[in-house]
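Hello,

Our lab assistant flagged a job as stuck in the queue for most of the afternoon. It eventually completed. Since we weren't sure the result was trustworthy after the delay, we are filing this so someone can double-check. Below is the sequence as submitted and the structure that was eventually returned. Let us know if re-running is recommended.
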Amino acid sequence: MSIAVAITDLADTLVDYPWGYFVSVSGEPRAHLRAVPTRFVDGALLATVGEATKANIGQRPKVTMVFPPSQPGGMSLIVDGDASVRGDDVAMTPTSAVLHRPALREG
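-- returned structure --
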């Protein structure tokens, strides 16, 4: 089950998601994940990341952040966007967002 989140509503939605997994892609290509606290400032998600993530963004700026639910059975927040390096931080400008919960089947 997925529910689209308007970019204009993202700041309010992020209140319940103080940290997430920052997903970039290395040159291999392989997903590179880092769990990071984030802040939403002037329409961008900001996170402090390491050198490998910065290098990945320099080559492939399309990234994703996945924010896990805070409660069992809750919804994850998935945000796609374009990233750039700003000093020690990465700024991700969101292009789409969705709340997602798997449709679990018994058996």
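-- support follow-up --
The delay was a queue issue, not a problem with the job. The result is valid. The chain has one domain: 2-100. The longest strand covers residues 89-100.
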